[in-house]
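for the writeup, i need someone to sanity check this before i put it in the appendix. the sequnce is what the collaborator sent (i think, or maybe the updated version? ugh). structure was predicted straight from it, no edits. if anything looks off just tell me and ill rerun, i have time this weekend
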Amino acid sequence: MDIEILFIDSAKLKRMQLLHVRFLLFDLRGREAFDKGHIENAFHLEKAVFLDHLLKSVSLKETPIVIYDEDGSDVVPLAQEAEKQGYLNIVALEGGYKNFEAAK
């Protein structure tokens, strides 16, 4: 059975940033795309190393985490894997970076 992943929209992410909510933000696009532009305070991680890095670097499994890619199409399996490893507060940005930029 697949784990259902929660999505947040760009407006909610912006409110979280404005209200200084503490969370980790991971950009899972390629380095070139990240270097051209990314959401403020995002950490770059290639999709291939995301889970390994998360397990090594984020020991508190309750840590709020938001992940995004270019268009939201590839994040669900990564979020599901993270939840299987015990991460309790992982959400995906609906529509990815494209939607975030379009909402500016």
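The chain has one domain: 6-102. The mean pLDDT is 94.
thx in advance!!
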